[in-house]
Amino acid sequence: MNGAKYWIHVVCLFIIQLTILDNIQLHSYVYINIYILAILVLPYGMKKLTVLFLAFLFGLIVDLANNTMGIHAAATTFLAYIRPRLLQLTFNREPVDEMEGTHKMRNLGWFLKYTSFSVLAYNVVLILAEAFTFANINITFMRILCSSIVSYVFILLYYFIAIKKKQE
Q1: What pTM, to 2 d.p., does this model score?
Q2: Which end of the chain, C or N, has fewer beta carbons within 10 A?
Q3: What is the full DSSP assignment across 49-96?
């Protein structure tokens, strides 16, 4: 995916996130976060500092829009920090070195694993930072699980409708 197409998708993801998904109330158990797809599809060869900065910036934008005091920025920065390890864990080394963003994401099983681990890690940090306590840990784990599943479904919907369709 070239630079212009990537930024168009980033703008679309943020419009969807901030205008639609942030206004859906599902009994405070579910946070739908689709904008993290912008971090997941960055080219593997991009400098780590740039990825960290973009992730922090994306999280900060959502924090400013939702008045959430940095929890999205913390979660997206954590996701960007573990992203290289997740890529190595979910895929063998040689193809990862040659991969450039979503353009080379042809292996569906790998992408599903990578996305699911990423969404789960993001939601663990986000919801534990928001709860900031281990009281009612059962409810916290339920929120993490529900938010991860729903976010995963919405991310895959956007990916297959907007990104994957345009690549073929």
Answers
A1: 0.87
A2: C
A3: HHHHHHHHHHHHHHHHHHT-TTHHHHHHHHHHHHHHHHHHHHS-HHHH
